[in-house]
């Protein structure tokens, strides 16, 4: 558990130092919905891969085929940011309120949490069987 926590802290530190760390906390300035979806998917994939690799190094010693965790993180972050940023743009466009962006960011975090949580459960169960 300590290794997982340290890997997570180091992963977040590296991502934060790269300028990508704020991606899950900020709303993009671009207003084009297709561009938001594209940039969300691309930036999310980068963040998910970096974070997944940091944690995957620890999981690799404990779980069979831990590389699936990296893939799940990449997919989860790509989906989360793409859908969250897109919803944020739609809601802000409809309401004219920044609150739409906040709802989009909440959705992004929920998608990331759900996809990575389910994936970790599958990866862990597969290694036990």
How would you sum up this structure, described in words?
This protein is mostly helical. It has one domain (2-128). 79% of the residues lie in helices and 0% in strands. It has four helices and no strands. It is elongated, with a radius of gyration of 16 Å. The relative contact order is 0.15. The mean pLDDT is 86.
What class would the helix/strand composition place it in?
Answer: mainly alpha
Q: Quick check: average pLDDT?
A: 86
- Radius of gyration, whole Å: 16 Å
* Percent of residues in beta strands: under 5%
Roughly what percent helix? over 70%
- Secondary-structure element series: HHHH
Tally of discrete structural domains: 1
Number of strands: 0
Count the DSSP helices: 4
Report the principal-axis shape. elongated
Low-confidence stretches: none
In whole angstroms, the N-to-C terminal distance is: 21 Å
Short description:
The chain is mostly helical. It has helices spanning 2-17, 33-59, 67-95, 99-128. The mean pLDDT is 86.
What is the fold's blueprint, element by element?
Layout: H1 2-17, H2 33-59, H3 67-95, H4 99-128
Tags for this model:
129 residues, mainly alpha, 4 helices, 79% helix
